[in-house]
Fold this sequence. Notes:
two-stranded antiparallel ribbon; binds alpha-D-glucopyranose
Amino acid sequence: MEKIRQEIKRLMRENRRSHDGFQYTLPSPELYPFQWLWDSCFHAIILSHFDIEAAKNEIRSVLSRPLPSGLLPHIIYWKSHDAKIQNWGREMRGDIINASWKTDGTSSITQPPVIAYAIWRIYNTDNDTEFLSETYKTLRDHFECLNKDRTFGDDHLVYIINPDESGEDNSPRFDRALGLAPKHTPDENLDHRISLMRDNASCNFEAKACMDDIFGIADVPFNTLYINDLEHMALIAEALGHEDDKAIFSTRADAVRHEMEKDLKDGILFRSYDNIHKEHGSALTWAIFMPLYSKLLSTDDARELVDTYFNNDQYFDAPYDIPTTARNEEAYDPKGGFWRGPVWMAPNWFTYHGLKKYGFDDEAKRIKESSRALVERSGFREQYDPETGEGLGAHNFTWGGLIIDM
Ligand code: GLC
């Protein structure tokens, strides 16, 4: 492990950039030359193992450009406006920026909340209350915005307005909502997402309008992470002596927990809900394991879930853990599928910790060993083929660093 640890340190150092007095880390200099919200949370957690100042700086930069609504954007472009994103072999810059986020230097959508947890992890290493207070207002505004703009009526489940807000851009969970068949080309998927971005822009990214008329999904991983982050907001508020906020965030976390159980649970599975088509998604993805992370299942149900789907080679037990889409799904494409089969390290990290929370140590060990084997065999790649372990997509991709936290 010491050798990998050194390699992780080197990768994190090499991908680090500075601009305007801020410091941030590129997920991959080659393909992702900007700053991404949930990536920066992963970076902060990785860095908290060996460079606490760099971890704090990563958080400072990712909090530095909130939208007027308070929402934290999923991309900060910094100076690299003219850089090109190669995605699906297509140059994305023109498409993304011309679809026009209607902002200056950031996107107008967000990504799953891991930010409060990342800040809490940093705080746990050195009890720096000043750092907590420095970040608190921006953090609080982000969660207030999610609560105000991304929910319906008195409900608390939050909705995403674009698949890219899930962090799993082309996951088959969003096929039906995008009007796509389980088998389609990467180009078709991208065309549908770009067209959705244009539709979102046409209503100025006003989430309520988007969620009602264009695209609105109560996604399982997003809401699971939202519960976890609300619980960490309560801890942060408590550490800062904000007793009222503490009560607000923990009551909200309980409400989301309750609504996930009431509205998204179907037997032992949680399924994302599409508000436009008024239906629950049916594609089986690794997201079925995500509820373990916020302990949404009873021990018996969790055991059944793991035995039925995780320890079963028809679904998710592949030579390399864990495929992001079940092996028997029509959409499964382990090599070229992006989020339609290949292994990604963040899902492995979430699932590892979810399994640990239930004491399923053998299964957690399987993920940990697989994750290490993938990095040792194929290096720090964006994704890996679960059938062969071959590295796919971007090189020098930071998420492999998460194995330091397993
Ligand atoms: C891809 C991933 C997304 C990630 C981004 C930068 O778009 O799907 O989750 O944040 O790359 O790494």
